[in-house]
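Before relying on records like the one below, remember that each one covers exactly one chain. Contacts with other chains, cofactors or solvent are not represented anywhere in the record.
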Amino acid sequence: MIFYERFFELFILISIAASSVFLLRVEATTIFIIEFSILILALVFITFYKLDYFINLSKKYLVKVPFVSIDQEEEIVIQKLSLWRAAPVFVITFSSLVLEFIRIWIVALAFGIKLEFIELSICFCLSIIIGLISQIPLGVGFMEGSLSLMIENMGVPSTTSIAIVMADRMISMYLVLIVGLIVSKLSLNELSEVLDE
């Protein structure tokens, strides 16, 4: 389920970002990022559907590694969801992304900046893709920098665009991390009390 959610998220992000070629004036760098993302998505898709084959093929070579113990006779089969069963995952993923687009648009409105919803959504998708390509957790730095630059190119002063992006990131990521740390600490205390009884 997690794989399908991440795959659909990437698919939606890349599809919306690719629409920038037709809806916005984009640079060659942006087109390269979109093409690179489509290539990665295609590789992930092929790898997932041929995962059984790759795992069973790798067993021949893993047996030669001294500290790995593998049953050569056992056939590994990865169960995959049908398109019908994966559809709800797609709908939930798409809905959550639309809510994210609405959130950043509302944050921009809170700063007194009215931006085109579609254009802002495309820029948001591109910045998430750039953050993912950077391979840094949460795309820290890359996502914020690219999105603030794109918002600035939409006619927003640089200080305001940075403030919009930082406020959105505080709401979407860092606030959630803080709440998660507090809840996990409380849960850990309750769990230790139950274990002590």
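The chain has one domain: 2-196.
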